[in-house]
Amino acid sequence: MIDNRPSRRIIAHAVLIFGVLIVAFPIYYTFVASTHSLQTILRPPLPLIPGSHFLENYTTALFGGIDRIGGVGVDRLLWNSTVVAVLIAVGKIFISILSAYAVVFFRFPFRMTFFWLIFITLMLPVEVRILPTYKVMVDFGLIDTYAGLTLPLMASATATLLFRQFFMTIPGELVEAARVDGAGPWRFFWDILLPLSKTNIAALFVIQFIYGWTQYLWPLLVTNRNDMGTIVIALRKMISFADADTEWHLVMVTCILAILPPILVVVLMQRWFVRGLVETEK
């Protein structure tokens, strides 16, 4: 039974608000710093009120080019990160849903062997196979390309496992009914399985988009040109060991711009994301 006493509700809301403030204050502080000049930031304490350099700082970062990253604007870095994150998310979902579909609904020799081979790759992250993977990218001329940034990160044993577990809950009567109606394998997949999997796809898209957006090691290795870098790599390059050499106002602008796309994806897909995680049929 749920306790609805006013005192407990007040305490619960107070704890929740306190937690939100703890999480949100660093982001607010970063935003405030992004609206002040470099001189103001280097003279602590930093004011807690936004400054008057908002348009100047954001325009310079987006379109003016930043010296420490080769004169590339943040707009280009945001584009690269968005392309990489979307391609990784879509590629992982596409490969995983087809793999799970084949394992669950088709009968062929060594079917489960192939599934367990896919599952075993969970123990082989990119960091373990990074040297042979990099060699393959060099041999195929995929350095400084979107294909080189995304292809090695598209396969996902976790997503394959999740789709397989969901497909196994689909009643056999539904499969038989589709077969009686004359639906072939692709029509069954497109008209029945795909609509039933939309919440799973939405939840995985959010998770994989953030996974692709926050990649650091692989983009660092596979890109040499500044205009092909991602925003996470650029943030590291912008920071020097000496405070005086770091354009902190532009760093703060880049930090704020870097967190906006993942937040936007989570907010826009929140309803589907939650449903995909908590639906009972999973």
TrEMBL record:
The chain crosses the membrane at residues 12-31, 83-106, 113-134, 146-167, 188-211, 248-269. The keyword Cell membrane applies. Gene3D superfamilies: MetI-like. InterPro entries: MetI-like, MetI-like_sf. Pfam families: BPD_transp_1. One of its GO terms (biological process) is transmembrane transport. Its main location: membrane. It is a multi-pass membrane protein. GO terms for cellular component: plasma membrane. It is found in: Cell inner membrane; Cell membrane. It comes from the Bacteria. Keywords: Cell inner membrane, Cell membrane, Membrane, Transmembrane, Transmembrane helix, Transport. Residues 78-269 form the ABC transmembrane type-1 domain. The keyword Transmembrane helix applies. NCBIfam families: PRK10973.1. The complex is composed of two ATP-binding proteins (UgpC), two transmembrane proteins (UgpA and UgpE) and a solute-binding protein (UgpB). Belongs to the binding-protein-dependent transport system permease family. Part of the ABC transporter complex UgpBAEC involved in sn-glycerol-3-phosphate (G3P) import. Probably responsible for the translocation of the substrate across the membrane. This is sn-glycerol-3-phosphate transport system permease protein UgpE.
